[in-house]
Amino acid sequence: MSTTTAGIGALTLRPLDPTKDAELLHGWVTHPKAAFWMMQDAKLVDVERAYMEIAADEHHHAYLGLHDDVPAFLMEKYDPARRELVGLYEPEPGDVGMHFLVAPTDRPVHGFTRAVITAVMSELFADPATRRVVVEPDVGNKAVHALNAAVGFVPDREIQKPEKKALLSFCTREQFKKAVSA
């Protein structure tokens, strides 16, 4: 994936290398800004282990996002019929689960996070098999709810996951296209 957004720059994705990228990710997921990532107390070895497990899982994939070739965000995609949401909703063919995290920064760029989620969604819908993207952010994460709504997600209901109360939300290809073209 490679997209260029006016005023933002180029956003690209590459597969995450758990060994090479663990130290970078550790700084991101343990930062106070990433509290909803639920890894605040993780040690470097915990982060490396978590992403090694994802790398070995055929139903869960992690990607490092680059902003003008500099690491700037993380994207995970997963099969919600086999990971994360098993037994919590009735999956449909073409459902793809997604998580994303923007790296903490001392110099925020206006519109950057929205550009990231738009690029992530474009990447997911670039696969013709993807019919709907599914997310399950913490119910208290109001900032991500607003971002999700901006790219077309519609909340369905609150669900109780083992680690959190989550807002199950869906976005079809059509909802995404309508939201980003508005």
Describe the structure.
With 182 residues, the chain is α+β, with helices and mostly antiparallel strands. An 8-stranded mixed sheet has the order 1-2-3-4-5-6-8-7, with helices on both faces. Strand 3 and strand 4 form a beta hairpin. It is globular. The two termini are 23 Å apart.
In short:
This protein is an alpha+beta fold. It is built from 5 helices and 8 strands. The model has no long low-confidence stretch (mean pLDDT 93).
Strand content: 25-35%
Number of strands: 8
Shape: globular
Number of helices: 5
Distance linking N and C termini: 23 Å
Strand order of the largest sheet: 1-2-3-4-5-6-8-7
Report helical residue fraction: 25-40%
Order of helices and strands: EEHHEEEHEHEEH
Instruction: Report low-confidence residues grouped into runs of 5 or more.
Output: none
Major sheet details = 8 strands, mixed
Whole-number radius of gyration? 16 Å
Average pLDDT value?
93
Category from helices, strands and their pairing = alpha+beta
**Oligomeric status:** single chain
Question: Strands, helices and their partners?
Answer:
Blueprint: E1 2-5, E2 9-15, H1 18-29, H2 44-55, E3 60-67, E4 70-78, E5 95-102, H3 112-125, E6 132-135, H4 142-150, E7 154-160, E8 165-172, H5 173-181
Keywords:
single chain, 182 residues, alpha+beta, eight-stranded mixed beta sheet, 8 strands, 31% helix, globular
